[in-house]
Amino acid sequence: MRNLMNISTIAILILTLPIAALADLSGTKTLTANTALSLDSGTTSSSGGDLLWNGTTLAPQGNASAYNFGTAVPFSSLTQTVVQAASALFSKSAISSLAVNNVLAVKTNGGNYSAVQVTAVSGGSITLQFTTFGASSAPAGPTITQVINNYGLIPAGFSNSGIAQGALFIIKGSGLADPNAQAVLQDSSKGLPTTLNGASVKVTVGGTTTSPVFYYAIAAQLALVLPSNTPTGNAQVTVTYNNQTSAPFSFQVVQSAVGLDSYYGAGSGLGVATNSASGVLYNYANSIPPGTQVTLWGSGLGADPTRDTTFSTANIANIKSLAHVYVGGVDAVIGYQGPSGYPGLNQVNITIPTNAQTGCNVSLIGVTTSGAPTNSLTLPIGTGACSDTQFGNIGSTLSTLSGKTDIYSGTTILSLETSPASSGSGTQVTNVALGTFQHISYNGLTYGTAGKSVSLGGCIVSQSLGSSSATSTSTGLDAGTITVTGPAGSATLTSFPGIAGTYLAQLASGFIPTSGGTFTFQNGSGGKDVGPFNAQIVFPTPLLTWTNQTAAATVSRSAGLPITWNGGSSGTFVYIGGSSSGTVNGQSVSGSFTCFAPQSAFQFTVPSYILASLPAGTGSVIVGNYTNYQSFSATGLDVGAAIGFVAYDIDAAYN
Prior knowledge:
The structure is a single chain. By secondary structure, the protein is mainly β. It folds into 4 domains: 25-133, no CATH class; 141-254, Sandwich (Immunoglobulin-like), CATH 2.60.40.10; 259-381, Immunoglobulin-like; 403-654, no CATH class. The strands form 9 sheets. The chain has a 15-stranded mixed beta sheet that branches. Strands 11, 13, 14, 15, 18, 19 and 20 form a 7-stranded mixed beta sheet that branches. A 5-stranded antiparallel beta sheet has the order 1-9-8-7-6. Strand 26 and strand 27 (346-351) form a beta hairpin. The longest helix has 8 residues, at 395-402.
């Protein structure tokens, strides 16, 4: 069974990113007779451009227009606001009798505003100083920085990266298309174009070259469909814009590499799932009942030549690239996987297992017939608003927070950690109390895009090139004087040097006793930014012990990683995490996984398809017993949480 979407719905599913703010372009150029100047790029040519100097006059070209302020107006006074305000006076008439210090206002062919001053006139030449507001720096031609699946966003170098034949993919870079173009989605019912906003793309594998078609094109990003007849193997892609062609950029064309759509377009966090019968989109406030058939959206199942360029319902058939779709670790029944009707857009219909766990962030990951995992997502499973009581997550709260671009958060943490000693031999045990109070800005994204949570019983993966780039920035909040009190006494947290909003206390050995106990964080009358709060953490009796540490020192990514433990308290949960970094084809890559299991199970196996998403190399494995999250509130905070944990951290080799 399959269902189709209308054109307005597909617009939501095609990832678009805002155009980055552009800097002003300033420069000085000397023009000889019959030379044209482009104020958008700072380049000269024999024709075109914005202003043509014929030896005696400057004439606007194309759609450009200008106004002559004469010599009475200082060049420094021509701000963007002043130039734009004079636009009613602009014309296409040629300007003559130009002298030194003559000032012009120009609207360029690219739609930008420019201030121009004559600094020299000699014989048949003229020298112009100019500032074009909102234009990029002088282009050296298109530059490609990344080629990735439009939905999965998995960087090159991982076993599950690559662009599948017939897939919807994006090219990131600079100078790729008209700098004033908007990300307008093209209508595939009329056929997708091979040229858009001045840009065209060629992909070459061996001796075969194909031309992807466009969904949209902006200067920083192109969204395209790779023709199904593109051969598999190492590909070279080039972008041509403004008669300049980029340097070739390498990527792998594969038969299948599935990326699933995420709710906030980040390739991770909450996944996009719609009811297969009604089309209703599920979210934290409207979770999916077990047994429901849902449709997942994405791209990369494989070649689909019928729909390479145009919407079509002809020859609809399964493309059986996915062998499994796991929901909370349970293998779901796949009812249909194949074309949606739209170029490059696939759909996968599954039935949520009746024995699937419930929660706000139940893990979702597919595995292809070749064993390659999809990107890692989560789904809200349950009835009505979702709930993860162990983590203090409630669907209504998550729905409110997830759309925010700024969050004011506070967290208090009490930890007892055993880790490799800094000297390289033996172990060290640390008791730490930590408080972190931050105003977090998600750099144009939202709180939901940063979601790295997973419900009990599942695992999620994060993948990145080299060290992870920051997806958010934070500013510390003043929470006043914070103390923590437990069975062995009290301690005061002090501000961590150089990190505003972070409070730390290195606790004496035994502050967290093996018998556990109750601990309370308080901040008295509060601070400048955060009001008074009282947060309580209860450690179990006895504390948890990781019983098979030695076996985890070498991780076989093609096999599951079994973890066993003793101790802890029923009702709490166990965190199992790991990370590795390595070099693939000269590219540094790193990955990490996070799993949560109920303490009462006393064992958990990290699935092989989770480990397969990480690179071979060196890293670590950590196992910890977390107390259930306790929420607290304070003026100045959107969310507050208190958590305690006992953790064991070891070095590990990933093979």
